[in-house]
Amino acid sequence: MPTLSKRVQKLQSSGIRVIARMAAKIPNCIKLHIGIPNFFTPEHIKAAGIAAIKNNFTKYTHNSGEELVRRAIAKRINYKFRKMTLKHGSFINFENITVTAGGMGGLSTSITAITDPGDEILIPNPGWPNFYMIPMSQGVKYRFYPLKAKNGFVPQSEDIESKITKKTKVILINTPANPTGAVIPEKIIRQIVKLAQKYNLFILSDESYDDIIFEGTHFSPYALNQKHVIVVRSCSKSYAMTGWRVGYTISSKEIAEKLMELNECQIACVPSMSQMAAKAAIEGSQICVRQMVKSYKKRRDLVVNLLKKYELYGYTPRGAFYILVDISSSGLDSDEFARQFLVKKRVSVAPGSTFGSHANSYVRICFAASEGDISQGIKRLAEFIKHGT
Length: 389
Ligand SMILES: Cc1ncc(COP(=O)(O)O)c(C=O)c1O
Hints:
Elements: H1 6-10, H2 15-24, E1 30-31, H3 43-54, H4 67-80, H5 82-88, E2 97-100, H6 102-114, E3 120-125, H7 130-137, E4 141-146, H8 157-161, E5 168-174, H9 186-199, E6 202-206, E7 229-234, E8 247-250, H10 253-266, H11 272-283, H12 287-309, E9 322-326, H13 334-345, E10 347-348, E11 350-351, E12 362-366, H14 371-387
Parallel strand pairs: 1-10, 3-4, 3-5, 5-6, 6-7
Antiparallel strand pairs: 2-8, 7-8, 9-12, 11-12
The structure holds pyridoxal-5'-phosphate (PLP).
């Protein structure tokens, strides 16, 4: 057989998926490893997808996404961030929007659009595994910048600056963040934008969890600079739509045209019926989002209280639905810990190592699960850390 691409040979499934495959074979397993909301897609969104199919809206759309969908997205963002947009004049037009195959599609096409093989992209450590898997699959180099527990896992611009080389082309930031739940404050976003301007770099801002914030407010670097910044967003988490595969980017029109061409040669377009479901989600009442966020906040508080009770508390996530828990006192590395914990206690968590070396002594819990599963899962986690059984 001819050899596969050297780049692709190096690719490996993330530790999240490895645990997912093991967990699928374990009966009655409590699943806290993966970021899937335990809500169903709201009825009005499903109805719009079904109506699209019934009305034969089942063909290719514009490569950038159906214009009506992009208009709905632009309108929602201008409304949602009206204080930010009014203050900074960063109004968004439908031509700044590209509908992508989830946030993942947005990240992937954006990285293709702004890098050449050999260029470097700076990514957070700890950070979501796709942040290194995507550049790796494209022959783009990645370098980690540290997120430190003592800073609440919020990036510091001096830590990013110290990693910039002549090859650096992109700084990737993620707010609210997976796997830490950290939200980057405006002050630090401003510093990162200044860095990007100083070194003439792009900022790729993954804001897939922008709706899921418990304290503080979301601030996007796009408000400050529309030429250097590409924003990646998603319907997956906000509207419990992970399987519909709809996300979008916000960028300059020049970049949006290139993203359109990349969509053309990679996916043609996001499935037409999914686009219509997303339009209903974005145009419709946002009460469903508020209800889900309220419920995630309740679960976040439950997790924090349980970790305090079992003396495992480290910090409080301010957004998304993840938390890192320090397991160093177990004496196991995070991969071994996640495997043994799953087999012995039937609870799946994501090993920290998959998010980068700075999370080696942690596991990630996703609290988009039921309160019962969270309580039982953390009880077993505490027992396992203490007694290994
Ligand atoms: C940080 C982050 N960005 C992007 C995504 C992409 O999600 P999707 O492709 O479903 O929109 C995820 C999914 O877990 C994520 O955690």
